Please model this.
Amino acid sequence: MESSPLRNLVPTDAATLGFVRAAVCGFILCEILRISFSDLGQLPVTLLRPTGAMKLLPWRVYDLLLTPAGMFGLKCVMVVSLGAATIGWFTSWATKFSAVLFVFFEGILRSFGHFNHDEMPAVYILVVLAFAPCGDNFSLDNLRNQKRLHWSALVYGYPILLMRILLAWSYFSSALIKLRVAGLTYLSPDNLPALAIEHSLDNLHDTQYKLAFSIPQASKYSPLFVGLVLAWELLFPLAIFFRRARYIILIIGIGFHVATMFLMNIIFPYHVAMYVVFVDWGKVLAKLRLLLDRSLISGNGVPQDAPR
Amino acid sequence: MELDPESKSDNYSNAQERRVLTRYAVLTIALLIPLVLSFVFIRNLYPFAASTMMLRDRDPGSNYYILRGETVGGETIDLPPISLTNALSGRHWGLVSAAVENKPFQISSLHPENAQLTAAHSSANDLPRAARLEDLLRAWGRIYNSRLPESSPQRLRLVKLDAYRWDGEIGADYGRFVESWKAAL
Model:
């Protein structure tokens, strides 16, 4: 089952899928290592408001888990699981287990308050990886067992396409919801300054930048800026289909998220990290290998154009 | 008719591939349909999110909060909660306003301790404001103090949450004090 249109759209090699697995799981692993689960376990469980699927769990589970020891135990299990998924060791099991644990952990965080969408594309991407043969390359499993089934382009390419669609959906639907909820008033000169100031008043945000208070001086440009951001979000799906548009859209994305940190104290590190799904890692790795080979040859004193 | 090993291997490979592709089809439906429904109804139903970021989720004129601590040495310090519970990145303001508004008492299945407290007050509406806020402030104070030696003058003796109001008008008074809650440690 070969698929030429898919080949034109996304990389269809095992190396890209394997590298995306390593990068996504590695990023989540670093985040899990960085945050203190024990401190979270000191918060009163009586403040929890289980959300969505988290309502299915009985309170007894939360009572047992939301203690410093309980949360530290959860962190250890997540580190082992995500570590195995990152290096590609028992990849099929490790990615599935990591996806379940990450969905559960993010559910706990959301049950404490604000929904916050930053991590959601990472949740979905981890779920996609859990059901894809992402350990066939760039993994310990591949080193241990060189024999594997010969898959078609669709098997390695489709998960990449699905991950790109899921990330693009986050931006595209966000723009549509803004227009549905606020309509054209979203473009009013006061909207952006008010939104930015609202997020800069307290000390409950992750950063405490005060640049928002200088936005009103330039509020006449605010509708233009907001309009451009909306257009960028609406056009984000083009990154799935066109390579040139992809680079422009992703660079604007990085700039946009850096700007929201300084202007609104809102940070979306997971969204930015998930841009890795838009890179053709198979080609990047092949180029790196070529460069490495060349430098090794020149390091051995063999001229690069010498007959071999 | 006996198949040669290569044909057997090809058959096995094709069957496996069909299984993987069926799995992809199920996965796509399982992810995309709930996401589209979340979008249509603009409703977050974990793990499916309607992307409502960058929308004003508070009414103009609602309160905002500053968390502070008072040290044993008598100094008042700012206590950004991200330095205490960094796992709740991007969620502290939601946690605090939910605690102030008694939102944990407004869910369908109450925690047994919250159910007991509600029963003691005949209904959730009769509860004192911010009924669980003191527990939260005390927990943050304990986390802060646990990082300092017992003899440090920087240890906190109380944690307080100050509420301020901004009416949403640009250039107006951004910080009109409203009320304060304190928790001694």
